[in-house]
Amino acid sequence: MSISERKERQRAERYELILSTACELAEAEGWDSVTTRRLAALIDYSQPVLYSHFKGKAEIVGAVAIRGFEELAERLKISKVGAAGQTNILRNVCAAYLDFARSRSVIYEAMFVLPTGLKFASEETPAALQAAFAELVAALGPKRDMLAMKAEVLWSALHGLAVLVQSERIPATGAEARLNVLVKAFS
Amino acid sequence: MSISERKERQRAERYELILSTACELAEAEGWDSVTTRRLAALIDYSQPVLYSHFKGKAEIVGAVAIRGFEELAERLKISKVGAAGQTNILRNVCAAYLDFARSRSVIYEAMFVLPTGLKFASEETPAALQAAFAELVAALGPKRDMLAMKAEVLWSALHGLAVLVQSERIPATGAEARLNVLVKAFS
DNA sequence: AAAAAATATCTAGCAACGACAGCTTTATGT
DNA sequence: ACATAAAGCTGTCGTTGCTAGATATTTTTT
């Protein structure tokens, strides 16, 4: 079974190559430029090969998004260490979320804006996604009533800020002050 | 000069026809289905005629968006009448915003999600857009410190809720409870 | 009233898109 | 060595946004 193992490994490598290339291209020129043709050319395979890995373009975006959820959950977790007091934890988590949205804006777009076909808040929700949401819930502290609801509204506010600043509907200046307002409102 | 007036009027009528048709088509099948060809066929003109009115597809979406801002500002204004107390005003305005996003989701998408080339928070920001934002600011009441910042965060939260519920990333149930959380956080 | 200029509109086409059917090459197991 | 199965490519379909060039219509000038 060593040969088929090798094949499978090579297939997995190509899968990764597709995702990383898609990511790089999107980062360089935006998701609109990530077409199946350009992607195929960049990985030195013909276009239909992509369809042997993914059902379509949306599924490629979705796969990138899942990687993004893993990284986001990780970053939120790390942001908590060394924070003194509940308010500080909340503040750090919010800052980490917004920083992720800013520094990985292309991946963020895949996760939360583009159509991916991913299921949220259900049985088949990817584990990474659930983990990221759990970090938000935990950041709100021990006050128990309506916890999930509060987390959803907090998440909405963070997402709104991220996406409205990104699309220049809210000016980039004043991010610090808005973070202060947000943390105060939720602590 | 009566003839040229008539011509100008007919041109304006066709402009309106394009916008209303685009709106109807988007409402029926989504913005992806609003292609220049289908739009042209529906108004019984050839495709290039659209380009004599608009620079491109994005500008058509932008024109629909501006109409949306007018309606949103109007709705927010109306929502205030008969509200007793500052908190009630805030609550009504938030509810009106979310209701607009829900009931006119296609127009909302044009206003806040799709690329339109509209300038926000600048000199050339459309009046309707400024008016809508002013309603949000007013809803926060007379407390003066960081008013614009607070309004931006409130708007972000509303937008986040609207868009995350719309894309089924937050469940539709519990809208009332989330509104409670939001209003409490900002009053 | 005829000729010239300007305006309005259409036909046809470009380059690029996502997706797929079917053929050809390559590798596998006997 | 040979049949078979898997993998990948060429070519194509139907669309997309957008535009150049041709044509018809109206307006202005002579």
Explain the overall architecture.
2 copies of one chain form a homodimer. Chain A has 187 residues and is mainly alpha-helical. Chain A is 71% helix and 0% strand. Chain A is elongated, with a radius of gyration of 19 Å. The termini of chain A are far apart. Chain A binds a DNA duplex (30 and 30 nucleotides) through residues 3, 35-37, 45-49, 51-52, 56-57.
What features would you highlight for this structure?
homodimer; 187 residues; mainly alpha; Arc Repressor Mutant, subunit A; Tetracycline Repressor, domain 2; 2 domains; 9 helices; 71% helix; 0% strand; elongated; DNA-binding
User: What is the mean predicted local confidence, pLDDT of chain A?
Assistant: 91
**Structural shape of chain A:** elongated
Radius of gyration of chain A: 19 Å
Helical residues, percent of chain A: over 70%
- Number of separate structural domains of chain A: 2
Count of extended strands of chain A: 0
Oligomer state equals homodimer
CATH class label of the largest domain in chain A: Mainly Alpha
Task: Provide the succession of SSEs of chain A.
Answer: HHHHHHHHH
Indicate the CATH architecture of the largest domain in chain A: Orthogonal Bundle
Low-confidence stretches of chain A: none
Pair of chains with the largest interface and how many residues each contributes: A-B, 30 and 30 residues
- Quote the distance from N terminus to C terminus of chain A: 57 Å
Largest sheet of chain A: none
CATH topology group of the largest domain in chain A:
Tetracycline Repressor, domain 2
Structural class of chain A: mainly alpha
Amount of beta strand of chain A? under 5%
Helical segment count of chain A: 9
